[in-house]
Structures are given as C-alpha cells and as structure tokens.
Amino acid sequence: MPKAAHRLRWILSLATAVLLAGQVRAEVGIVTEAPGDDVQTVKTDRGWMVPYTETIPGTDATFEMVPVAGGFVHQDVGAEGEEPALVEVELPPYWIGKTEVTWAEYRPYMDLNQAYAQIQQLATLEADGDAAAAIQKAPHLAKKLSMKRAVDAATIEVDAVTAPTALYDPSSTYESGEEPELPAVTMTPFAARQYTKWLSSLVGRDYRLPSEAEWFRAAAADDYAEPADLDAVAWYTDNADYVAHPVGEKEPNAWGLYDMLGNAAELVLDGVYAEGREAPSGRRLTWAEAVAWPRKGDSRIAKGGFYDAEADTVTLTARLVTEDSDWKASDPNLPASPWWYTDFPATGVGFRVVRPLDPIPDDIRAKVWDAEEESVARAVTERLREGRGKLGPIGADLPAVLQELGSPELKKLMK
What we know:
Blueprint: H1 3-18, E1 30-31, E2 42-44, E3 47-49, E4 52-55, E5 62-68, E6 71-76, E7 86-91, E8 94-97, H2 103-110, H3 112-128, H4 132-136, H5 139-154, E9 160-163, H6 170-173, H7 189-203, H8 212-220, H9 230-233, E10 265-271, E11 285-286, H10 287-290, E12 300-303, E13 319-321, H11 324-327, E14 349-350, E15 354-356, H12 365-369, H13 374-386, E16 390-393, H14 398-405, H15 408-413
Parallel strand pairs: 7-11, 10-14
Antiparallel strand pairs: 1-3, 2-3, 4-5, 5-8, 6-7, 8-15, 9-16, 10-12, 12-13
Helix pairs in contact: 1-13, 3-5
C-alpha cells in the first residue's frame, strides 16, 4: 500500500478507536414506563425502546427512528447464483430509520467540504496574524483551529471525517430532483459510512448502516412474507414514472417503516463473496459475525429495489450488487471519486441508518465507519493531496463553529 494511503487508513482507524470516547450517552429513545399499545415498543432490561425524532445539530433537518425487537433470522451465505446456504443470525434490538435518508439530512454532510475549506483558510490567515482579533471573538472557532494546528503538526486527526467533494454532474445525481424530502442517492458505500460516523459524533449516539440481516428483519416485520400488493408499499418501474418519490408516501409495513421496498435501494454493511462463505454448523451467529465484511475488490449489497426496478427484484431477498467501474463510468477523475457514483442504476441507490441499543464495539468501529479497502484509501488520499477532498474535525461543537464561520467579521476576512 502506498505510504499516503497507509497513513490515511491509520488516521481513520485511530479516529474510530477514540471517537465519542468519554461522551455522555443520553438514553434517547428509552422510557421507564410502558407506553400505550398504539406505540411501537421493544421491552429491554433498561426500559422500553420507543420511536424518537433526531435533529441534526445546527440544522432544521430531522429524522425518525423506530425500534425493532431482537430475534433470529436466516441469512444466505452461499455463492451467488447457487442454492442458498442458510445460517441463523441472532440480532439484538435496534432502532432503524423510519424512512430512507433524505437530501435534507444528507446535504449538511455534503456542506462540510466548503466548511472545512473555510476553516483551513482561516487557519492560514491566523498564522499570518491577519485574523487573530476576529478569531479571538469566536471561541468555538479558536478551539477548532487550535485542534487543527495540533493535528496538522502530528498528522493525526482523532475525530476526523472526510467530506465529499462537490458533485461532478449534479444532473445525474439529481435525476429525480433535489427536493429535501426525496431519498439521497448516488453516494458510495464509503460516503454512506462516513455520513454515519459524522452523524454519530454530532449527536453522541452511534449510528451506522444496517447489516443485511438487520435490514431483512426490519423489512420483513413479523410475517417474513413478500407484500401481497406491491403497488401499495413500493415505488418501482410499474408505478414510479422512472423517478424517485418523496419518502413516506406509500403504506408502511407492519412495524411502521416506509419504503423498505422500492424508491431507493438501500446500502448495507455487507459485501458479496462470489465464492460464498462457509456456513458454521451448530450455533447461531452474532450480527457482526454474520456480516460479509468487504474485502479487496468485493462488490457491496443494496437491498429492497428502487424506482426503476422490475417487480421480481423489489423483494425482501433480492440484492442489487454494486459495480464500481460501471457506476463510475462517466466520472472523469483518476482515480474515480471515492464519494460519488455517476451512472445508472446508482441514481436509485441510497441508504437508511440503524442505531444499535448498545454502542458499536471498539474493535469494529473502523469496519463500520471508514475506508474498508486499499483502493478507497488511495482514492481518498489523492483527493486530500490535491485539495479537492477535505479531512476535518467533527464533534458536538462543530455546529457552533459553522455558525461563527457565517459571522460578518469572518466572512469579510475570507473575501
């Protein structure tokens, strides 16, 4: 692995090891008294898990999370195109997004590219002495710049996330429109993971992509049967008019989750092993053991089908497998963007988030949030070297920093 790519992986691995360390985790979404029967709840030894609304700090964007009871599901670990080889997976309870992540939620993460550029510009100005007075009036910004200088000196970022570069061709990404209530699409699995890392740091609760097993349990609800009336629950090629639609317009499933099938296919943590995996016998797998953690060259899985998919691929078990070379065919960058796809069917691929009841174990934080293979790390490193990508600090004080970046005094300095 090139030295720069190795260093990036080291930086991001270190970041995941200490991210959120020492933060107080409020038990948002848990109540001590049983709610009414009209509320989707899950009983635990800490109380009842209930639906809740999360607000992305510093924005008006909100999303709803719904609890899913722990249980057992069967997952296929066989080779693609061959007879299923099923293993039993034991899932602890978790919350999952009521809808797919929307543009309203994803845009603040996209905006980090410009925000980090401003922070870098102010750091340069402060070093020359021109911005010292203005920065002294912005305590959160001064703290963030102090952190950045220390990080730059040590080439280590303890709570860093990569901000996606600007879209190369917005007309492709926004093929269905860019209204806030539409599902966000065309991000790569790496970008989706980084989004969940950014979100986790901002709110102090762990968010991530679902595993394939978790996605299946949430989508199947209690009966594990395909819907009797696909038109009622899903946007797909027969009814969508070739575009995505605002989330939550179709009927929810039995657990109150919308668009689990259709509208946007949803990325999960799992990759695809063309040769399949050995199915252990005599025991159930934990959720983490069941994940097909991506390896070098493995494609990734998106579940549920999308607005231009045929009915036989808008099912609980169907997989849409990523094809990086085809999905980035129009990208003129070398190497191609690690954050964005440019081509169909990626225009119909998004994701939804999961929050586990217990924090993500330290030994898999990097797997859950960061670059999972060398080619992605190299591509990110190259963007950072060229200044087109940004690696920046995150944390609970970031919204205050961004607000101060918009102050008249600081805007004047950056003209």
